[in-house]
Amino acid sequence: MSQVSTIGLDIAKNVFHAHGADERGVTVFSRKLTRGKLLDFFAGQPACVVALEACGGAHHWARQLQTMGHEVRLIPPAYVKPFVKRNKSDAIDAEAICEAAQRPGMRFVAVKSEQQQAAGLVFRTRDLVVRQRTQLINAIRGHLAEYGWVAPRGTAHMTMLADLLEDDEMASTLPEAARPMFKLMVDMLAELDRQISVLDREIARRAKEDEAARRLMTIPGIGPIAATAIIALAPPIETFRKGRDFAAWLGLAPRQHSTGGKQRLGSISKMGERTIRRLLIIGGSSMVRQACRFGAPAGSWLERMLARKPRMLVSVALANKMARMVWALLTKSEDYRAPAAVAA
């Protein structure tokens, strides 16, 4: 019997499927496994390459398999899809994962430690709470509109609105049954604001304690949230050969649809880590807004771009530029140095 060299593992909640192949790609076994028997099965296998899709729970199983001496490779699901021959089943998916892992040009995802995942959890939690706050604000504004009160948009007006709901003039126009519901939503909103403040302080504390995060905060447009998000959510910076590769991984590079020797570039690809991409675009937008209000430095790249391009396009282009700065600063372990002004 041939010696297995690569195992493709299709993971799920309770039922898994393993597809083993030798160094020539010939199938050695295809086996269904339950969750309780998975680790016992791999403990009896010789040290080999184990490939999984980079999905929920993949990093946990990767760490477990690495402790057994296996070389674990996580593959983005989009890169496995072309190797699925026809239809879909656990066995077919495991075979496709095994075949994709044997391709010499395949790209893999770095396995995260428990500490890295815990560091990223604070941003996931903050995003969740911010989305809940936005839903609650929209609900309050929408229900008030049913009674003829149109509230201004934005979180800054919610404190004023909460005070008005306590005022007799506004409360008298609302039905008796509606007032407790508005009071409940306002109290929930205040609690969400408190939780977001706690998370912001935690993120700021982590940014001050981390040397790399402090270095990233020297880049204009990058604050504590963006800096710590890059450190927590991005793979090791040495994974990327150049700054443009890092920007492309974030989805800030143009989408290509080129053929016949003609280059066609579209909008940004929006691939990769969307949390970091969103934070960089927000930082770029703040820089563009400040430049439009107070003026950009004379002769700067930003001044030339704003003179001939729309503001949103400049914001995304600036986010791409900031991503390449991030790569350069982390690679060289240096602080940001502002470019010298161009002589008139």
UniProtKB/TrEMBL annotation:
All copies of domain Transposase IS110-like N-terminal, residue ranges: 7-147
Membrane-crossing residue ranges in chain numbering: none
Species in which this protein is naturally found: Sphingobium tyrosinilyticum
Pfam families associated with the record: DEDD_Tnp_IS110, Transposase_20
Name of the protein this chain belongs to: IS110 family transposase
Transposase IS116/IS110/IS902 C-terminal domain mapped to chain residues: 213-288
Signal sequence, renumbered to the chain: none
InterPro entries: Transp_IS110-like_N, Transpos_IS110, Transposase_20
